Write a sequence for this structure.
């Protein structure tokens, strides 16, 4: 089975801090994604990456950046955390970019609170 | 992603079959039907997907209407672990740009399984 591991289940940070969320997948997937999930707003794509060092903005990239230096690892960075970034963050991966219907496999999420 | 309609909630008893309906009357010829579920405090989990023919895997079966305007996810013997929100989504199988990568969940169906 595909395993997507997010570094923390729960995280509490302060306003203005730089926050790193890490995600690792073990299935050699080309595509990796960062979403946030909020009540009433559903799942929203922040960034995705289809290869090492490649990244594309999703629907809500403002205030975030990403890093993909190795195929198995995709990091989400909150440059200067704000309270409106309190949310559940979900990382996902899927196999080759040419197969757009491949399932996405998710980690268990990081519940981030910004105080 | 094209729109889908699902009941807000359904209830089942343990070890009984569950049929979760999904309407997608505006489905296009290249849209695949995907199902995901999300257990409490966990990330979404891929369940099954199909295009025209019925599909079976170890988790569930997907029955697709002949006109493809509706589909049904079948859990053959519900367990307490199947209590989750189930999402039916359409994904364009045609070659295309970045929007095909992201998942967009509606409100889904909250399935309650009674012991």
């Amino acid at each position: 089975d595909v395993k997507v591991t997010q570094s923390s289940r729960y995280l509490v940070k302060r306003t203005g801090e730089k926050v790193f969320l890490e995600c690792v997948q073990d299935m050699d997937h080309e595509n990796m994604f960062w979403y946030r999930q909020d009540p009433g707003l559903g799942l929203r794509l922040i960034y995705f990456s289809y290869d090492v060092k490649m990244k594309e903005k999703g629907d809500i990239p403002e205030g975030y950046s990403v890093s993909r230096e190795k195929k198995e690892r995709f990091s989400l960075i909150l440059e200067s955390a704000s309270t409106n970034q309190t949310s559940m963050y979900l990382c996902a991966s899927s196999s080759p970019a040419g197969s757009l219907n491949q399932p996405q496999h998710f980690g268990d999420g990081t519940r981030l609170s910004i105080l | 992603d094209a729109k889908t309609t699902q009941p807000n909630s359904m209830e089942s008893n343990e070890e009984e079959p569950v049929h979760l309906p999904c309407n997608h009357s505006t489905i296009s010829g290249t849209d695949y039907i995907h199902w995901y579920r999300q257990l409490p405090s966990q990330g979404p989990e891929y369940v099954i997907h199909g295009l025209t023919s019925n599909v079976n895997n170890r988790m569930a079966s997907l029955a697709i209407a002949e006109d493809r305007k509706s589909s049904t996810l079948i859990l053959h013997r519900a367990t307490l672990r199947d209590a989750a929100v189930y999402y039916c989504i359409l994904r364009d199988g045609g070659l295309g740009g970045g929007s095909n990568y992201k998942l967009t969940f509606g409100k889904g169906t909250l399935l309650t399984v009674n012991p």
